[in-house]
Amino acid sequence: MNIDQFCVKLEQAHHEAIHGGGNWKLGRTWPDEWNRMIMKALREAEAKAGRMLTRNEVLDIVAERMTDYRIPINFTPGRMR
């Protein structure tokens, strides 16, 4: 999967808030920071399943967390890196 196919539009303040308040160095130490939280949830789901997750399983987990964080589930292609 290409992450650039799963971008969403967010207000800058909302984006900064889910990453720990805007200071990425401090944000990565916050347990509920978006990247840390998603990767932890995916690792735990894979460990429980005993295998790699399917694309749809990953998307289901991410969609649930997006709802928790009030992130719209309207994917839009992002800029290519």
Largest sheet data: none
Look at the helices and sheets and give the structural class.
mainly alpha
How far is the first residue's CA from the last residue's CA?
A: 14 Å
Rounded Rg: 13 Å
The tally of beta strands, per DSSP, is: 0
- What is the share of helical residues? 40-55%
Give the count of helical stretches: 4
Strand content: under 5%
Count of separate structural domains: 1
Shape: globular
How are helices and strands ordered from N to C?
HHHH
In terms of quaternary structure, what is this?
single chain
Low-confidence stretches: none
| Average pLDDT metric | 86
Structure characterization notes:
It contains 4 helices and no strands. The chain is mainly α and 81 residues long. The chain has one domain.
